[in-house]
Amino acid sequence: NVGLNFDSSNAYQQGVNVGDTIRFTDAWAARLAVSQDWFNTDNYNNKGALTTEYSNHGVSPTASLMYKPVSNMTVYATFASSLQAGDLAPAGTVNAGESLAPYRSKEYEVGYKASLTKIDFTAALFEIQRPFANINAAGNVFEISGQQVNKGLELSAVGEMLPNLRIYGGVTLLNARLEETPLASIDDKIYVGAPKVKGNTLFEYSIPAVPGLVATFDWQFSGPRAANDTNSFFVAGYNLFDLGARYTTNVLSKKV
After folding, report:
1. Exposed, middle or buried: residue 78 (CB in 10 Å: 0-12, 13-18, 19+)?
2. What angle do CA 194, 107, 223 make, to 5 degrees?
3. pLDDT tens digits along 225-248
4. Per-position DSSP letters for 168-184, written without gaps between them
């Protein structure tokens, strides 16, 4: 009896990163980066014997073009292509415990940033494409069977809303779907665990009557999430509220 757990795989990743920002004029600039990554994964059975081995390497480039119509605003467009470790095959499949070969993901993003007198705003539209792995019922093999495509909008605000009141907030509107899958039952379905709306907003209020005392209120929220690939049922959304406070003073000439 080998028990329920064993060392099913070891994954190694090494990389070298180089990046630079090039300014053409006061308004136009580009940010370029490239990473050379090496992956190696060894898969073992429950006896500790090596079953399969994956090795891969490749270049992961990122490029952004930025334009400042005025000094406190930036419009940008970004493309990124990156390698990442493959998923692990679940229990009950023919290749259970084995790690798939590394994936390549691609991202496209356009965004806008504005720094006003006391508050910064950011908005970004994005699309991320990555391979999707699932169980092939025909052979009970965990393998690549389509794409996961995430399309969304991110909004954020950081700064002082009113005297003594600060906000750190963001919300993401997301459409994460499975595409190009061989099974009609899961094609164009919402990706498991990905809500259509999710966000977090933290408010901090410095109490004028007591210097150093700050009251905090944090609100995290999420919409319903798909609980399986066929979207036959969903997990309900939630709201999480946190109330807190912190106090800063000097004790024996030390900030506490």
Report:
1. middle
2. 15
3. 999 989 999 999 999 999 999 999
4. EEEEEEEEEEEES-S-T
The band of 77, judged by pLDDT with boundaries at 50, 70 and 90, is very high
Residue 13 host element (H or E): strand 9-23
Q: How far apart are CA 146 and CA 179, in angstroms?
A: 6
Name the amino acid, one letter, at 3: G
Give the three-state DSSP class for 212: coil
Q: ∠ CA 93-97-103 to the nearest 5 degrees?
A: 95
- The set of residues, in sequence order, having a beta carbon less than 8 Å from that of 30 and lying 6+ positions away, is 21, 22, 24, 63, 64, 65, 66
pTM (whole model) above 0.70: yes
Beta strands in 24-140 (DSSP E): 28-44, 50-67, 73-84, 103-115, 119-136
Tokens of 220: 């995290």
**Is the separation of the CB atoms in 74 and 66 below 8 Å?**
yes
Which residue has 């459409």 as its token pair? Answer: 175
Q: Secondary structure of the chain: what % helix, strand, coil (to 5)?
A: 0, 65, 35
* Interval 98-119 mean pLDDT: 90
The token pair at 229 is 């690939």
Residue 100 is encoded by which pair of tokens? Answer: 């798939």
**Alpha-carbon torsion angle 178, 138, 51, 2, nearest 10:** 100
Residue 1: pLDDT band (50, 70, 90) is very low
- Other C-beta atoms closer than 10 Å to the C-beta of 185 total 10
**Planar angle of CA 34, 40, 43, nearest 5 degrees:** 150
